[in-house]
Amino acid sequence: MRWSNLFIPTLRDAPADAEAASHALLVKGGFIRQLHSGHYSLLPLGWRVHQKVENIVREEMDNIGGQEFLLPTMHPAGVWKRSGRWETMGEIMFRLTDRRHNELALGITHEEIFATVAAELSSYKELPQLWYQIQTKFRDEARPKSGLLRVREFAMKDSYSFDIDWDGLDKQFETHRVAYTRIFERLGLPAFPVEASSGAMGGKDSVEFMVPCPAGEDDVIICPNCDYAANVEKATARLESVDDGPPADTPERFPTPGIRTIAALEEAGAPAASQIKTMVMVADGRITLALVRGDHQLNTQKFIDATGTIELRPATPEETQTHLGALPGSLGAVGVIDLPVIADEALRGRTNMTTGANEDDWHYRGVDIGRDIAVGQWADLREVSAGEACINCGAALDTVRCVEAGHIFKLGSGYAETFGVTVSDADGVQRPVVMGSYGIGIGRNMATVAETHHDEKGLCWPVSVAPYEAVITVLKLDEATMSAAEELYDGLRAGGVDVLLDDRDARAGVKFADAELIGIPYRLTVGPKGLADGEIELTVRANGGNKRLSLESAVETVADAIAAERRG
Predict the structure, then answer these.
(1) Would you call 293 helix, strand, or coil by DSSP?
(2) What is the pTM of this model?
(3) Within a 10 A sphere around the Cβ of 58, how many other Cβ atoms?
(4) Quick check: 233 and 207 in contact, CB under 8 A?
(5) Which of 2, 4, 51, 484 lies 20 to 30 Å (CA to CA) from residue 210?
(6) Does pLDDT of 223 surpass 80?
(7) Average pLDDT, stretch 144-150?
């Protein structure tokens, strides 16, 4: 391809709202343009990168026996109501009504739709099955941002496995884990697997593949001493035991005028680790008390996972006053019997605790949780912080900000039971199949590669996904120079190199800057001075290295270097 024929609208400045490096560089480099919030047009360079990411994903899915489908992205509401996710998806689902007043949805994911197809399976002899598609998804994000990292319309590879039992699912899950590792290696991403919440997907276990990135929205807890890694929504840590001393016979009510915080109560003589923090939440419209230790924070996703809540928010001061008789700062669960109470496991068995008395400016001390509080459910609710002890080895944990590059789930038989996906086993007994679900966002991974591979001059694409693998920069458009450039261009194309010929009538500085901005891995500079010595200059974008090559050896040298990078 010749640059003079291409639409590459590079910009001098990034958009004012570009917080992420990938957002700024993909816009400046002419890869993407925003149509409206959360929706982007992929321009020719962007589409080339997107297709290369997609092809890597497709190749690895095919390598593990995946069969490619293409299912509708507009779905009847009834399918989602049948699974119960019409409600659980909440406001993130785009919903509409057609001219016949039928309720419809734009697909967030396709578990339900694939399950309806899988209902045609009849025998265990047809299993296992591995199906996938690369299809557009829609999610009504409340705050789309960071370019392609958080959007409302995007392409995703979603695959689904179908097995006769959990052993089969475990094998397919591991097969996907290995395939995902290969995908991210080929994309040049330092992704690593972490334990994760399954969220609205449901199921037993899930693993996210995370890439360290300042623009990410997930905090991952990792152990520098062993292989423990988990999303903060799933992470646990080892807690030191607390000596509560001799238990009190009964709670003692005492005045705390003006004390409204954990810190203020600590100054008054109650250590934070011996306080009960009472979080009043509205879970699916019902006031619910969530209890954690005073020096801990409630993780709302853990609360959602533990309770199955669909819509969750903190109660307002007016609501706490109405239901508990006090404002925040004096709230507690002692004697509360008419509201659900869920407590963090770190509080189990604790005595001599201090908590609000549900009257402004009053607290209780000497509280025995097992005796004085009607806990209806115990769960892991607290958010783990950096510096806490690893649950496995006891080393101090670290926190890393990351982008989620992929997510794999063990769904189990829930969807199969709902949609009647059963097969006869070897004994002729009908059994629901066991499903897995596995996702990778194509555009998100494109942006994550850009986040990982750039410098102050622009993008530095790996060969595997670069819009072009090499660019020939022509310094002077005279007959001799163009003839040498054309010969080099034809040779590289014949050698299988994806090459761009920069034949624009522009200054050398402009051409160099553009090539660096859009991140082409290899630049071959052809000019009269070098040709006088029978040479051209090769520049490697990733490290800025330069070397002279003879015109005769240039094609073979560059083609071999690119082929070696493709092989990894």
Answers:
(1) strand
(2) 0.90
(3) 18
(4) no
(5) 51
(6) yes
(7) 93
